[in-house]
Every structure is written in structure tokens, then in C-alpha cells.
Amino acid sequence: MGMTTLETATHVLLIGICCMAGGLLIEQRFFSEPDSGPAAAPNLVGREVRLPGADWQSAPVSVVLQISSTCHFCNDSMPFYRQLMATRQAAGAKVPVIVASADAVAVMQQHLADQQVSVDKVLHSRLEGFGTVTPTVYIVDSKGMVKRVFVGELDSSGEKELLSIVQRGKV
Known about the structure:
The protein is an alpha/beta fold. The protein has helices spanning 5-31, 72-76, 78-91, 105-114, 156-168, and strands at 61-66, 97-101, 121-124, 136-141, 146-151. The chain has 2 domains: 1-32; 42-168, 3-Layer(aba) Sandwich (Glutaredoxin).
């Protein structure tokens, strides 16, 4: 028994739609511009950081680590955060290091303790409105304004720059 004209037309139309959808997916995946991602978020330098519990006036600059206990890039960065704290201590720098996390404070404190990273303060915050991902490092001045931002896992030049800022106590 053969197909009716309507059935044949329907099958041809469905095959055509599937081919078109597949072509669009392939074009989007392979031929579109790569997503600029969070690093291209609006420039945050000069924006005020509202982080209840942070005392910006206590030092010329503060370091804010926006991290999560479940972020693998954050966890991959833990050895660097240990190095950052050791560098700060060795330099005698008075640069506060604050962790801002969407995790509960107790969860993040335990996570940092497990990773042997000792920071000055852990605060519960998503830093709404900043549109960044974890990990992000903010250098904040004594007025609470962002002076420098490092988005994502740092490469060696980013690590060197951040260590230098902490050693000098200024941007």
C-alpha cells in the first residue's frame, strides 16, 4: 500500500525542517563568533562594591575573592590562594583578603580550612549586578571602588600581577 500525496508531502516537509534545524545548529556551533563570556562583562573598574561586612577604609586596597566551593576553577586555584596569603604575610602587607561567596558562610569557611587557605573574612554575597562568574578577583580601594578585576582562573601573568599588588599594598 503506497503513501497518499498528503503523507508524502508531510514526510518531505518534516525531513526538510530537520535538515534546516540541524544546519542551523551546526552553523551556530562551528561558524558563529565565540561567546565573549563574562570577561567581556561591562567594565567594572570604578564601580562601587556593596558588600555588607567589608571595611574598605581599613586599608588602601582590599582583595575580594568571589569563589564557590563547587566551582572546579576555584578549587584548581586554591594552591595559588595559599601562595597569595603566604606572600601577603611574608611582605607584611596590610591587604585584607575577603571571600564573597554564594555558599553559606560556614560551608565556605570549612571548605577554605580543608584547602588550608586562611583569609581575613568570609561573607555571604553573590555580588549582584556585577555579572561575573567564579572565580573573580576584585581589587577594591579604601572607598569601596573596584580598581582592578581578574575574571576566571588566572594565568601566570595574572597571578604575578595580583601577587605584586598584594606585596606593594596598592594597585
